[in-house]
């Protein structure tokens, strides 16, 4: 007896694991660049994050009495840990990576019901948790020490940095957003604080302090464009988010350029590129419709700019994304496609009229 | 010509190359034909022959009954050997009332009334001949064509659209028909146009059928029929999609195309109309595409209605390897066949024997809300939300989201990276709703009957009481009269 199957009897050559692998592929250039830029400690943090996510997810899924293999094979947990690792300081201690990964896949994903059920983006929620709980470890940035350069830590040194939390005071630096914020509280305006600290080309190429993957804005942008070309994501949310940051930045910069940084500064710093192309395009926590995604993306951008400009933290992408994740069900409730033969409200079009 | 923008749709691998270059071949007459009485939307035909009767090809064997119905005819000459239930094309192999004919091998036609000048007939005569021929929508909808013609004339339809979309992968029978019999199709189209009095006639053909487009353009030259290339996408053959592409108009929800002055017919229907009007020949055969990775020699066959699917497979060289699934119709909307021993009906455009690789069957994973389904839906629905509500047992919430507007085209299931059988959910919920509505109707009629019964009982009691009161009054009057009489007698005697 053949099992009963319903149409369609054909399927597009796509699956969740294919989607996840494509996203990882898009992340690879920026990640590899980060590995080169920050050396072995960065690789440690990345590896520890992934291992913690895999082991943690396997354990809780096993406790739930569900099959572990399909859950791990879909690749979503690994991608979450990967995204989190890219947002961590490269010289962060191992337990930061482990705590963050476990919080992301266990608390933010599996507790909510597993893949597809979480309200908040797990990577961003974990980052926010870490930032609030361990502000010192999460804001200790390192000036780039590319592999092969004089100051680059060796593999053995990297183990001491990652696993024994060896002090790294000589190389401490500040991310550009953090630096500007600190200078600002000392009453120093942008015209001075940015001198010698900011050049757009450096931001593009990532030659400055920052988290693992955030610094390579150009490579992240390329990865994002690749995802759009492969039709894994659409352009709507990312472009809307970039505009959401760039438009207010441009307007306020025109009003007072010493007080408000310009759009290029905002676009190329912090986690904006990662957020725009890899975080807010997370399908689970973003709206369903094109219009909804435009609203969502623009709001994420606007909130990011507001938090960066007037908030208590130098960077706002993670907070903005979480706030908008919470608003996603409302956006989906109000923004729906028009059904064929009906108007926007769902009422049937009048009979006997052409239009 | 300017075409209009369409919503959603998908581009499945067409797989038409398997059969597209194979010319139409006539399937040799099988020994037994199994002709179901319900091959159309509406009421089943009523059998008018008995076991043992001899019939000729084209002879009426099942009469149309009701407003929306269609007759069925003997697809060959022979003897009726059974009138009863026979397995139908259904995923669970359910049976349906069927007339079985044993062919005598002569394939002798009934004498039919040939009309040399069909345009001299009145529109009423044309639609009567279409009705008598048992023609139904051959694109797969199987709505009785004559009913559509009459409805269109009543609604003053001004635009006739002939659907040469054939967007289902694998299926090439309309493509072949247009390539090989374009002139006959165009005559059929012109007859339909004349019968409904439409001003504009457009034939929409997908641009992935250049040979069919060229043949139809050549055949339609110097006629009022315009042949137009439309983009190749699924579901281009959805009548409302075709209307939108060619005219930009939208049919109101819950309405018919006639509401906006449009009539849509399939190219194969137009061909059948020409046969019926000019030669008086009823619909007793159709073109069927036999294809799929498991078929040795795919092709396009002219098949008598009632032929078993297995005969078609045999004629095409049998199976290369055991098919993972047999399908009646196209892969996007066709139904799975539990057995190949079921008859071809008027709406069967293809039979497929598919390999496991072609089906791409994978265990479903959780929905990641990627909204690929939302982008693919040609209707503008939210398949992911509808399925979530149905899973939670809340079909009415799915109705609020537009479940009843779903056309079950399968685009959402096709693109779902989680391989969730979305259309299965929707059809399940539609069935459940139908059951609920039936239960509600039953409850209402039970309530009505109970009320009527109570009323009746009350009335009978009332009448009884009234009768009793009347009797009592009569008795009392009688007694009184007797008393009075007795008193009178007493007074008189005193």
Summarize the structure.
By secondary structure, chain A is mainly alpha-helical. Helix content of chain A is 59%, strand content 1%. Chain A is built from 17 helices and two strands.
The best one-word shape of chain A is globular
The helicity of chain A comes to: 55-70%
Q: What's the gyration radius of chain A in Å? A: 22 Å
- pLDDT under 50 segments of chain B (min length 5)? none
* Gap from first CA to last CA of chain A: 51 Å
What fraction of residues of chain A sit in β-strands?
under 5%
Strand arrangement across the biggest beta sheet of chain B: 1-14-13-17-15-16
Proportion of residues in extended strands of chain B: 15-25%
Largest interface: A-B, 48 and 67 residues
Shape of chain B: globular
Question: Which blocks of ≥5 consecutive residues of chain A have pLDDT under 50?
Answer: none
Largest sheet of chain A: 2 strands, antiparallel
What is the chains' assembly state? Answer: heterodimer
Question: Layout of helices and strands, plus pairs?
Answer:
The complex is a heterodimer of chains A (355) and B (494).
Chain A lengths: L15 H23 L1 H24 L4 H6 L2 H11 L7 H17 L11 H12 L1 H4 L2 E2 L12 H9 L8 E2 L2 H10 L4 H4 L6 H6 L11 H13 L6 H20 L7 H5 L4 H8 L10 H21 L6 H18 L21
Antiparallel strand pairs in A: 1-2
Chain B lengths: L23 E3 L5 E5 L9 E2 L6 E2 L4 E4 L8 E2 L4 E10 L7 E9 L19 H10 L12 H10 L4 E6 L8 H8 L1 H15 L3 E7 L3 H10 L5 E6 L8 H9 L14 E5 H13 L5 E7 L7 E6 L4 H7 L9 E4 L6 E3 L12 E5 L1 H4 L12 H5 L6 H9 L3 H6 L10 H5 L6 H72 L1
Parallel strand pairs in B: 1-14, 9-10, 9-12, 10-11, 13-17
Antiparallel strand pairs in B: 2-8, 3-5, 4-7, 5-6, 7-8, 13-14, 15-16, 15-17
Helix pairs in contact in B: 1-2, 1-4, 3-5, 4-5, 4-7, 11-14
Structure in words:
The complex is a heterodimer of chains A (355) and B (494). Chain A is mostly helical. Helix content of chain A is 59%, strand content 1%. Chain A contains 17 helices and 2 strands. Chain A has helices at 16-38, 40-63, 68-73, 76-86, 94-110, 122-133, 135-138, 155-163, 176-185, 190-193, 200-205, 217-229, 236-255, 263-267, 272-279, 290-310, 317-334; strands at 141-142, 172-173. Chain A has a two-stranded antiparallel sheet. In chain A, helix 1 (16-38) packs parallel to helix 4, helix 13 (236-255) packs antiparallel against helix 15 and helix 13 runs parallel beside helix 16 (290-310). Chain B is of the alpha/beta class and 494 residues long. Helices cover 37% and strands 17% of the residues of chain B. Chain B is built from 14 helices and 17 strands. A 6-stranded mixed beta sheet of chain B has the order 1-14-13-17-15-16. In chain B, strands 2-8-7-4 form a 4-stranded antiparallel beta sheet, with no helix packed on it. Chain B has a 4-stranded parallel beta sheet with strand order 11-10-9-12, with helices on both faces. The N and C termini of chain B lie far apart (120 Å).
């Amino acid at each position: 007896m053949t099992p009963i199957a319903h149409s369609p009897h054909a399927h597009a050559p796509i699956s969740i694991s294919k989607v996840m692998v494509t996203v990882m592929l898009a992340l690879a250039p920026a990640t590899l660049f980060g590995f080169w830029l920050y050396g072995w400690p960065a690789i440690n943090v990345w590896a520890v994050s992934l291992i913690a996510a895999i082991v943690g997810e396997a354990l809780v899924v096993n406790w739930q009495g569900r099959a572990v293999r399909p859950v791990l094979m879909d690749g979503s947990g690994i991608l979450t840990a990967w995204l989190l690792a890219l947002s961590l300081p490269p010289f962060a201690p191992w337990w930061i990576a482990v705590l963050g990964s476990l919080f992301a896949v266990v608390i933010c994903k599996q507790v909510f019901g597993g893949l597809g059920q979480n309200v908040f983006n797990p990577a961003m929620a974990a980052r926010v948790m870490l930032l609030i709980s361990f502000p010192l470890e999460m804001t200790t940035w390192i000036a780039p020490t590319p592999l092969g350069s004089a100051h680059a830590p060796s593999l053995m040194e990297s183990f001491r940095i990652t696993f024994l939390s060896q002090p790294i005071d000589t190389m401490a630096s500040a991310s550009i957003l953090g630096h500007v914020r600190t200078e600002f509280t000392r009453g120093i305006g942008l015209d001075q604080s940015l001198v010698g600290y900011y050049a757009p080309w450096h931001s593009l190429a990532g030659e400055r302090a920052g988290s693992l993957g955030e610094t390579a804005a150009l490579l992240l942008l390329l990865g994002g464009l690749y995802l759009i070309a492969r039709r894994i994501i659409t352009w709507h949310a990312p472009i809307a988010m970039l505009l959401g940051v760039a438009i207010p930045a441009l307007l306020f910069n025109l009003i007072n350029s010493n007080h408000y940084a310009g759009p290029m500064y905002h676009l190329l710093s912090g986690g904006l590129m990662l957020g725009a192309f890899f975080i807010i395009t997370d399908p689970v926590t973003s709206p369903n419709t094109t219009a909804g995604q435009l609203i969502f993306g623009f709001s994420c951008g606007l909130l990011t700019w507001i938090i960066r400009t007037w908030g208590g933290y130098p960077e706002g992408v993670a907070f903005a994304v979480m706030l908008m994740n919470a608003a996603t069900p409302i956006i989906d409730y109000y923004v729906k496609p028009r059904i064929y033969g009906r108007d926007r409200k769902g009422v049937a079009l009048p009979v006997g009229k052409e239009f | 010509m300017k075409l209009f923008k369409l919503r959603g749709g998908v581009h499945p691998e067409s797989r038409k190359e398997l059969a597209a270059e194979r010319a139409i071949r006539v399937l040799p007459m099988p020994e037994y034909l199994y002709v179901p009485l319900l091959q159309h939307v509406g009421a089943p035909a009523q059998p008018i022959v008995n076991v043992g009767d001899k019939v000729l090809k084209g002879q009426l064997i099942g009469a149309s009954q009701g407003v929306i119905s269609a007759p069925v005819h003997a697809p060959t000459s022979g003897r009726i050997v059974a009138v009863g239930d026979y397995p139908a094309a259904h995923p669970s192999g359910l049976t349906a009332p069927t007339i079985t004919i044993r062919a005598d091998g002569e394939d002798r036609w009934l004498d039919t009334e040939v009309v040399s000048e069909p345009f001299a007939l009145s529109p009423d005569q044309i639609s009567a001949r279409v009705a008598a021929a048992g023609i139904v929508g051959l694109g797969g909808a199987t709505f009785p064509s004559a009913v559509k013609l009459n409805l269109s004339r009543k609604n003053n339809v001004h635009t006739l659209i002939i659907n040469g979309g054939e967007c289902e992968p694998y299926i090439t029978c309309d493509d072949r028909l247009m390539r090989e019999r374009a002139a006959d199709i165009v005559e059929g189209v012109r007859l339909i146009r004349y019968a409904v009095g439409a001003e504009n006639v457009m034939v929409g053909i997908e641009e992935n059928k250049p040979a069919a487009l060229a043949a139809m353009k050549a055949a339609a030259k110097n006629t009022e029929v315009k042949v137009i290339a439309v983009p190749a996408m699924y579901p281009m053959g959805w009548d409302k999609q075709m209307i939108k592409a060619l005219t930009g108009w939208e049919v109101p929800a819950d309405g018919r195309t006639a509401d906006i002055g449009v009539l849509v017919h399939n190219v194969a229907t137009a061909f059948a109309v020409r046969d019926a009007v000019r030669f008086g020949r009823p619909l007793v055969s159709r073109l069927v595409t036999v294809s799929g990775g498991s078929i040795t020699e795919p092709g396009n066959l002219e098949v008598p209605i009632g032929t078993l699917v297995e005969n078609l497979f045999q004629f095409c060289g049998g199976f290369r390897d055991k098919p993972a699934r047999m399908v009646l119709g196209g892969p996007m909307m066709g139904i799975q066949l539990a057995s190949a021993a079921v008859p071809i009906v008027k709406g069967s455009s293809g039979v497929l024997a598919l390999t496991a690789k072609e089906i791409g069957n994978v265990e479903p994973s959780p929905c990641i809300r990627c909204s690929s389904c939302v982008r693919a839906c040609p209707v503008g629905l939210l398949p992911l939300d509808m399925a979530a509500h149905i899973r939670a047992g809340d079909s009415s919430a799915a109705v609020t989201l537009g479940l009843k507007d779903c056309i079950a085209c399968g685009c959402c299931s096709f693109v779902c990276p989680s391989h969730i059988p979305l259309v299965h959910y929707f059809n399940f919920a539609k069935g459940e709703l139908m059951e609920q509505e039936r239960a509600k109707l039953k409850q209402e009629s039970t309530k009505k009957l109970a009320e009527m019964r109570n009323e009746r009982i009350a009335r009978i009691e009332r009448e009884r009481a009234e009768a009793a009161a009347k009797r009592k009054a009569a008795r009392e009057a009688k007694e009184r009269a007797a008393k009075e009489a007795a008193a009178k007698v007493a007074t008189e005697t005193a």
